[in-house]
Amino acid sequence: MDNEIQCEIHGARQEAYVCRHLVGATSGLGFNRDEPTEDKPFPDAWCNDCELIRAAHGGWNDKSEKLTTVSLLCSGCYQQAFIRNSIPDVTLDDLADLRWKCGSCDEWHTGPCLDFSIDSPYYWLKEYEALNVLNPSSSLRECPTFLDDDYCAIEGRDYFVRGIIRLPIIGTSEHLCWGVWGSLSHENFHILLKTSEDPIRVELPPMFSWLSSQISEYPETLSLKMYAHVSKPPLCPTFELEPSDHPLAHEYHNGISPERVKEIMLGRLKNNE
């Protein structure tokens, strides 16, 4: 690819340019640019303050360009800056005083609820519960069928790990997080088990996985392609969804609107009352 740079986060990606205000973890600053084209999918971008400078000088020229600083990003970081700094019509501000009770810690919290989880893989059946007990001669994780907070095996044949899909919320630096399960190969599953307390596990390459949870707010989510990125213990992996036309994959790569987040959150909290 022409004009490619190496990013510590995203690897080899196309280069892109933004004003310095859009670099880092900034959010809600506005994201101004020309319309992307096939030849230029990542046009130069600038925040709302720099837009005032541009407009005051009749566009980008020698005078206006002296009053701002341009920074180089990879296309992946550019897309993240676009999601964080775009300004949506609906925000989460009106949920700042919302009180809700957490189903995990049973405590009351205030503000948006941005984490939801699924207890077991879709393929875990009620009949397996009787097998999910400690054998006196072995640990639970050595059994052919078991389920705990982080791992699951079914009949020594299918293997799963719990992880997180993080959807960036447009106009913010926040994420809506889905705690879900993904499949693993026999080899990768046992590698994770053996390194469950080893900080060096973070150096493991991404592991191919099929999404193994059905998220009710979306069309069929089973078997979406993704990769498990291993985190340092005790953190669980994060899942990277492959690009596709599926709404969940679209929100993973392009951001989820605050309006959609509110719809999901309020629906989940109401159903848990």
What does this protein structure show overall?
- The protein has 273 residues and is α+β, with helices and mostly antiparallel strands.
- Helices cover 20% and strands 26% of the residues.
- The mean pLDDT is 91.
Secondary structure topology:
Blueprint: E1 4-7, E2 11-19, E3 32-33, E4 45-46, H1 48-56, H2 62-65, E5 70-74, H3 75-85, E6 99-101, E7 108-110, E8 115-117, E9 146-147, E10 151-154, E11 158-168, E12 175-184, H4 186-194, E13 207-210, E14 225-229, E15 238-241, H5 247-254, H6 258-271
Parallel strand pairs: 8-12
Antiparallel strand pairs: 1-2, 2-5, 3-4, 6-7, 9-10, 10-11, 11-12, 13-14, 14-15
Class inferred from helices and paired strands: alpha+beta
The averaged pLDDT comes out at 91
Kindly report the spatial arrangement of strands forming the biggest sheet: 8-12-11-10-9
Give the number of domains.
2
Unreliable sequence segments: none
Q: How many distinct beta strands?
A: 15
DSSP strand (E) fraction?
25-35%
Helix count from the secondary structure assignment: 6
